[in-house]
Amino acid sequence: MSSQTSPQSTQMKKEDPDLKRFLEILNERTKDLNPKISIDKYGRAIYIEISNEKLHELAERLSKLGIDHVKSVTGVDYPSENKIELLIHAGSYLRTLRKYTVIIKSFLDRSSPKTRSLTDVWPSAEFQEREAWEMFGIYFEGHPDLRRLLLPEDFEGMWPMRKDFMIKTRRPGEVEGPWK
Amino acid sequence: MEVDRESSNDFLSNLSQELFMIRETGVREEGERLIELQIGPAHPGSGHMRILAWVDGDIVVRCDPDIGFVHRTIEKLSENRAYIKTIPLVERPSLLDTTPMTIGYVNAVEKLMGIEAPPRAKYLRTILAEITRIASHFYGIGILAIFLGHSTGFMWAFGDREVMIELATMLTGARITYAYVIPGGVRRDMPQNFPDQVEKGLRYIERRLKDWEKLFLNNPVVERRLRDIGVLKPVMARRLGITGPNLRASGVDYDVRMAEPYEAYDEIDFMIPVAEEGDAYARGLVRFKEIEQSISIIRQAIKKIPDGDIISPQISRLFNPLMKKIYAETRRVKFPSLLATLKPPKGEAMARVEAGRGEALFHIISDGSTNPYRFRFVTPSFRNVILFKYLIPGHRLADIPAIYGSIDYFPPEADR
Amino acid sequence: MERGVVFVGDINIFIRRLVRSLVEKKPIRDLIDWAVAYSLWPVHLMTSCCGVELAGGYSPRYDLERYGSLPFVSPRQTNLIIIEGTLTRKMARVARITWEQMADPKFVIAMGACAIDGGLFWNSFNIVRANEVMPVDVYIPGCPPRPEALASAILALQDKIRKVGIKREDIEILRKYVEK
C-alpha cells in the first residue's frame, strides 16, 4: 500500500475494510447502550462517548470483542462546565485489531467524581486508576488497593492536576538563601 | 473476533494459588512469620525506587513497588508552556531513547495542525530513532549485568554505547538530549561523511556482539541465575498490559512499528524477534536480537534516503530572507516566530510510537490557545510496573535484582 | 618547671596536647588533605536523569576512577555525594538521611541545571533545590553535563581540598573531645 516516492502519509484511510467490519459489529453489539461512536480522520482512533452508568457494561462487551488491555486511564478537568471527563485508551493484542485504539470518554460530576472500577474487566488498569485517583480525585469503587502512587505521603493540598491547583508561571526574583 | 475468557477475579486468584503451590511457602498468617523489608532508594540494586518485600525466610511472599521518587509533573508543567517548549520536557523522562518520545509528541502536534514532514526528514528521524534504540538496549544490558554482579558486562555495555552516542553527536550536536525533531521536519541535515562513519560504527558493533555471546549469553553463571526466573506467561502478559521486549520474550509479537507504521517504517523490511519461554534469560536475549535488527534497519535507511527538503513547505514559507539564506547554505532550520507560538485549531489528536522499552502513547487536547489544554503521556515503564507485584512473589530474595534487571525498568520514565 | 610538672604528673594530657598541636601544623595537615583529596568515594545514590552521565563517567571512555574515586555502596564508608538531577520531595528526604549518615569530612557536588536552580522544571510543585537540603561545594551546569565536566568538577574539588583544607569544624570536634 506504499507509494513509490514517499512513505505512507498519514492521510485519511476511510476505505479500510477491517475498520468497517469492526464498526459494524461494535454498533450491533452496543446499540442498546446508546453510545456515540466516531473515528478521527486518520482512521486509527475510535472515539466512544458514553454515560457513566453504562461504562462497565460497555467495557465487558468490548473485552468480549477482543479489546484486552488498557493503555491509560486519566481525567480531563473542565471547571467551567463543572465536569471531569474520564478518558480511557484501550487496545488489543490481536493481529486484526492491533492498529486501532479505542478511546472511551465519559463525564463525571466534579464535586464528587465516582465511578465503578474496571479492574475486574481489565486487570491492566490497576496502577492507572491509582494515578487518576491521586491526581484528580476520581474514586473508583471496587478497586482492590486504592492509595497514592506517585506523590509523597505527606503531600498537602488537593488534587494536583485539577485546574484550580496553580503553579508558578513567572520566574521568581532572587535565588533563595543559604542552606539550613 | 470472539475471545472467550474466564472472569479476571478467578484468573488472579488462580494465579496466586498456583505460585504458592509451586513454592510451598507454608505461610500461616501475616505478622507471624513475615518480615517486611524495604529495599530502599539508596541501594545499588534498586535505582530510584523502593521495593517493599514481605519475606518468609528467604522466599518473597508479597511485593509492592513504591515509585514516585522522580515525579516531575511533566503533564502539569506542559499546560503552562507553549507547544514547542514541551519538546525538551518530553525528552527528559526516558533519557536513553529520547528520539522516539519526541517523534511521538511531534506526530501528535502535526496531526492537530494537519501538516506532514517531507520524506527526507522522515528517514532522518528513523535513523536517529534506531541509533538511540541501540544505545538504550545497551544500557539495559549493562544494568542487567551489574545487578548480577557481572561488572565486565557493565563496562563493555557502556563502552559500546559510546559509539552510538558519538554517531548521534555527529548528526545533531549533542550527546543525549537533542531536541532534533520539530513539527514539520528536523533541524539539521546530515553531514557528508555520515554514511561512512555509520558503517564503521555498525561494523564495530557487529564484531562486539560476537564477543558478547561468548562472555554473557553462553556464560554458565549467568544462565544459572537467569533461566526459569520470573517466568511471564503469554496469557498473563496480555491481561496485565505489558509492552516492549518483555512482551516479545513471552511469545506475543506485538510491535507498534509493524502494527501502525509511522515515519519511514513501512518501506523498510525488518523482523520482530520473539522468544517463547518468557523467563529472564529470554528477555535479555530478545534485546540482543533487536540490536541486530536495528543495525539492518539503519543500513537500509541510509541506502534508501531520498533527497529533498528537511522541513515542510508550510513552515518554510514563513521564513524571512535571512532564515532562507541560512537554510540554503548550511541546511539548518531557524525557527520563525509563528512556529514558536503556534496555535493549532481546536481538537484532539493521538499518536503511538515504539520506544526502546515498549509502546508510548501521546494524547493532546487543544482549545485553540498557545498552550495545550491537556497533554496525556503514558510511558512503557509505567505500564510495566505491575510486573513487580505479580512476578516476584514466589522467588527468593536474591532473585529480585535479576528480575528487576531483566524487565529493564527505568524509574524516571515511569514517574514522568 | 611547669612543663616538668605536667610531664611527670599527667602524661595523658601532655601527649594529647602535643599530638593536637602537631596535627594542626603544616606537614601533617597537608598530608591529611592530600589523602582525603585523592580518595573521594561517591555513594551510589542516583537521584534523577543525570545519573546516566554519571554512569557514563565511570565507563571505560571517561574513566573517572583514575582520579581516585570509586562508587561504593554504603554511605558510612564514603565521603562524597553527587546530587545529579532534580530533587523531588520524596527523594530529598532520602538524600538528607544519606548525607547525615556519612562521616565527616564529607563533600557535595551538585550536578546539572536541575540541582542548581530547578532547571527545566523550575515551576513544578514537587521539587526542591539542592542548597536547601545540604551544603554544596561544587556546582556543574549543563543539562546533562558531559562526563568531562564531571571530571573537571572532581579535579576542582580536589584543588579546593588541598588549598583550603577539610572543614575547620572537624578540628573543633577534635578539640572538644580532647578537653572534656
Layout: helices, strands, pairs:
The complex is a heterotrimer of chains A (180), B (416) and C (180).
Chain A: H1 17-29, E1 36-39, E2 45-49, H2 55-65, E3 69-78, E4 83-91, E5 101-109, E6 114-116, H3 126-136, E7 139-141
Parallel strand pairs in A: 2-5, 6-7
Antiparallel strand pairs in A: 1-2, 3-4, 4-5
Chain B: H1 8-23, E1 35-39, E2 50-56, E3 59-66, H2 74-77, H3 86-91, H4 98-113, H5 119-148, H6 151-172, E4 181-182, E5 185-186, H7 194-217, H8 220-226, H9 234-240, H10 245-248, H11 256-259, H12 280-304, H13 313-316, H14 321-330, H15 337-340, E6 347-355, E7 358-366, E8 374-378, H16 380-384, H17 386-391, H18 400-407, H19 411-415
Helix pairs in contact in B: 4-5, 5-6, 5-12, 5-18, 6-7, 7-12, 12-18
Chain C: H1 2-9, H2 11-23, H3 26-37, H4 51-57, E1 80-84, E2 87-88, H5 89-101, E3 107-111, H6 113-117, E4 127-128, E5 138-140, H7 147-164, H8 168-178
Parallel strand pairs in C: 1-3, 3-5
Antiparallel strand pairs in C: 2-4
Helix pairs in contact in C: 3-7, 4-7
Structure report:
- The complex is a heterotrimer of chains A (180), B (416) and C (180).
- Chain A is α/β, with parallel strands linked by helices.
- Chain A has three helices and seven strands, in the order H-E-E-H-E-E-E-E-H-E.
- In chain A, the strands form two sheets. Chain A has a five-stranded mixed beta sheet. Chain A has a two-stranded parallel sheet with strand order 6-7.
- Chain B is mostly helical and 416 residues long.
- Chain B has one domain (74-415): Cytochrome-c3 Hydrogenase, chain B (Orthogonal Bundle).
- In chain B, 50% of the residues lie in helices and 11% in strands.
- In chain B, the strands form three sheets. Chain B has a three-stranded antiparallel beta sheet with strand order 1-2-3. A three-stranded antiparallel beta sheet of chain B has the order 6-7-8. In chain B, strands 4-5 form a two-stranded antiparallel ribbon.
- In chain B, helix 4 packs antiparallel against helix 5 (119-148).
- Chain B is globular, with a radius of gyration of 23 Å.
- Chain C has 180 residues and is mainly α.
- Helix content of chain C is 48%, strand content 9%.
- Chain C starts with a helix and ends with a helix.
- At the A-B interface, helix 2 and strand 3 of A face helix 1, helix 2, helix 9, strand 6 and strand 7 of B.
